[in-house]
Amino acid sequence: MYYFYQPATSLPAPPILPNPVYSQRPFPPINTAQLKLSVRSMKKLVAETSLLLNKLADSSAFAYQVMTAAQQSKQKEVERLIKSAGITSKTAITYTPDSLHIELSPADGTAGCCHLIIVLRWQ
What angle do CA 94, 96, 98 make, to 5 degrees? Predict the structure, then answer.
């Protein structure tokens, strides 16, 4: 009697079937209230950012004052200058020798909804 040896590696792979536990799990119902709140808050942050960027772009004197105060590590003066451009939101301002970092978040208590981070390089 002759026997034919067939190694296990030559067998076709079994088909991959979807896992019914993962493919049929229910998703929570969609509620857009938080998204709408975030969008409204972000629109305000973007508008304030536009005011600041326009002032920095249009006024060389203002840009010079911000850079000078930052290079001299005058944190309160940098914050005062940024606020004077029309920023009413909460700000976290840091700077390095190369750039200015501004993080804006809503002032109305919805701080967890969104943040806008601006990094402006000057060297």
Answer: 130
- Lowest-pLDDT range, 6-15, 26-35, 58-67? 6-15
Query: Residues 6 or more apart from 90 whose CB is under 8 A from it?
Result: 104, 105, 106, 107, 111
Q: How far is residue 116 from each of residues 62, 105, 111, 119, measured CA to CA in Å? A: 22, 7, 11, 10
Domain count for the chain: 1
- pTM, two decimals, is 0.72
Task: Classify residue 22: in a domain, yes or no.
Answer: no
Q: What is the pLDDT of residue 27?
A: 79
Which carries the bigger pLDDT value, residue 74 or residue 4? 74
* Parent domain of 43: 35-121
